Amino acid sequence: MKKYVFMASVAMLFIVSCKKDVNDTSDESELVPLSVEFDNIVGGQNLFLNTVTYTNGAGEDFNVSMFQYFISNISLRRADGTEYVVNQDSSYFLIRESDAATRFARVKVPEGDYRQLSFILGVDSLRSTMDITKRTGVLDPSGGMEDGMYWGWNSGYIFVKFEGISPSAPVDPSGQRKFRYHIGGFGGYSAPTINNIKKITIDLSASGIARPRKGRNANIHLMVDLLKIFNNSNNLSIATNPTVMFSDFSTNIANNYTAMFYHDHTEN
Fold first, then answer.
1. What is the pTM assigned to this prediction?
2. What residues in the chain have per-residue pLDDT under 50?
3. How far apart are CA 183 and CA 204, in angstroms?
4. How far apart are CA 120 and CA 75, in angstroms?
5. DSSP result, 98-167
6. What are 173's strand-pairing partners?
């Protein structure tokens, strides 16, 4: 009985948080396209997989072999404070550095002038516990742990997957000096566990508000600085923590990566 009470509480909390201050009376046929572009970088450099060496705040060299993450539950706020929440079934995206086609999260919204963008970095607890028939597309867990973004052994999504090679990492069984950061945790299914779901809110007013209209595509261009995973409120050393998955230390990395996103410009 406790299992179902906990699940219901988690789901209710998320539903309430989603519906707060929402003013959505728009006809679906009146919605217009809007895209959010995620442009991955490392400090002031473009991110290139496998070929470029970068240096973190601990002075450790590394290159990146994989960087991907879930974006979900997109919403936008107007100057008057009203908010539009994108239909949740159309609001899950897997951004993969290895596939340029995935860098855009394309949604539909009412025409308007939007000054604030919000989204979840990860997969919310409600969707994580839904029946498998409600978790299709990028949420299909059949990819498994190695190729996808799902822990089969832990029944949960990996929100951010970041892997690479560094001379500061120990030699693994394959003979490589590989580091691996697989960060997830939605708060627990039948009992409380690690919760690394992060809501990101970005002010668009300084670098250009979004004005989606019929007949043209508005695009919010965000920079995503991978270096923030290492260098933020909790400094991360590859030598000290070469592999982090479902552990208490993962919360330090999750707190760091909330600072990855900033608004570059908007194309209207």
1. 0.88
2. 1-23
3. 28
4. 9
5. T-GGGGEEEEEE-SS-EEEEEEEES--HHHHTS-GGG--GGG-GGGHHHHSSEETTTTEEEEEEEEEE-T
6. none
* Rounded-to-10 torsion of CA 54, 42, 123, 1: 50
Alpha carbon of 179 to those of 62, 84, 153, 184, 241: distances in Å? 9, 39, 21, 17, 8
Own/partner long-range contacts of 52-59 (Cβ < 8 Å, ≥24 apart):
54/227, 56/227, 56/230, 56/231, 56/236, 56/237, 56/238, 57/227, 57/230, 57/231, 57/235, 58/168, 58/230, 58/235, 58/236, 58/237, 58/238, 58/239
pLDDT, position 147:
67
- Of 120, 145, 133, the C-alpha closest to 70 is 120
Give the Cα separation of 141 and 138 in Å (integer): 8
Q: Is the Cα torsion angle 254, 47, 88, 266 positive or negative in sign?
A: positive
Helices (H), the chain: 2-19, 125-128, 144-147, 250-257
Structure tokens that stand for 111 in this block: 């025409």
Angle CA 195–197–200, to nearest 5? 145
What was the pLDDT predicted at 14? 45
Per-residue tokens: 129: 């516990």
Domain ranges of the chain: 2-267
CB 123 within 8 A of CB 136: no
Give the count of alpha carbons within 13 A of 36, CB side only. 30
